[in-house]
């Protein structure tokens, strides 16, 4: 579940290991490049934290963030 | 199923799209780097062809190839 | 230099090691996803072969291929 | 320059764009998997923050961290 906090959409993801976490990051990176909308994200081993906000809209949550959030969730549904 | 052909272990993989295919390739790349044993592979869109042989053993199939083949298969079992 | 052969644009790239080759492939993958135009490519260790053709145009070379070829070359100029 | 702070080795990296930043992250990911020592890192667009510490040594800086820091720096020297 994405949570709204500090004008950001935030979600934490956990995988079996680093390899799976980074493969997920690679797929998110494709989405980000396609949409030209890039997340702030942090990773350590099997954990990935994603935070979405729209800098150009004064750091508020916009449709761009919601669309990227949905596309990220869809990556994991497929598997 | 890996098939033995021309002194190589060969296998074809198919995914839903390019993003999933390349995420798989990223995970195989981690294995290859860890084992210091690199595949020949080709990709177009959602398809990946992998061929394993051991150059240092005169281009024959060795335990290195079998170990990498098993590790690659394990990546897909997990999902 | 890209060469025209069998209705494809072809080019071979060589890097210092697998890590650099795969980092290049990751950048090419971003371009491919953005343009929704994907190469056939093969890699072994530090070598990458790229072949571009447009399937939807009866496997001929189109502007899409030329544009992707240029974008790929630009990746390497920067470094 | 890596700085020592809160028992961590920290460094900030900046690239021309997201594609270059993520290609760098892919190369760092290879190092991390090979050494079985994974960084905490964050990225937004062209910026990457890396923090290294050894969890198994009570979150102190060890030789593992110094070795990974050197290997990361080496990635950028080459280019």
Keywords:
homotetramer, 43% helix, 4-stranded antiparallel beta sheet, 79 residues, Gyrase A, domain 2, alpha+beta
Radius of gyration of chain A: 12 Å
Assembly classification: homotetramer
> What is the count of DSSP helices of chain A, taking H or I runs of 4+ residues?
2
Most extensive interface: A-D, 16 and 16 residues
The unreliable regions of chain A are: none
Q: The biggest beta sheet of chain A, please?
A: 4 strands, antiparallel
Into how many domains do the coordinates of chain A divide? 1
Class by helix and strand content of chain A? alpha+beta
Helix content of chain A: 40-55%
Let me know the average pLDDT of chain A.
96
N-end to C-end Cα span of chain A: 17 Å
CATH superfamily of chain A: Transcriptional coactivator/pterin dehydratase
Major sheet: arrangement of strands of chain A:
1-2-4-3
CATH fold-level label of chain A: Gyrase A, domain 2
CATH class of chain A: Alpha Beta
Instruction: Give helix and strand order of chain A, one letter per element, not per position.
Output: EEHEEH
The outline of chain A comes out as globular
Report the β-strand fraction of chain A as a percent range.
25-35%
């Amino acid at each position: 579940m994405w949570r709204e906090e500090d004008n950001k959409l935030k979600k934490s993801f956990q995988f079996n290991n680093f390899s799976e976490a980074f493969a997920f990051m690679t797929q998110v990176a494709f989405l980000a490049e396609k949409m030209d909308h890039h997340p702030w994200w942090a990773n350590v081993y099997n954990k990935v934290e994603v935070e979405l906000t729209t800098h150009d809209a004064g750091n508020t949550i916009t449709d761009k963030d919601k669309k990227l959030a949905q596309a990220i969730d869809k990556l994991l549904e497929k598997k």
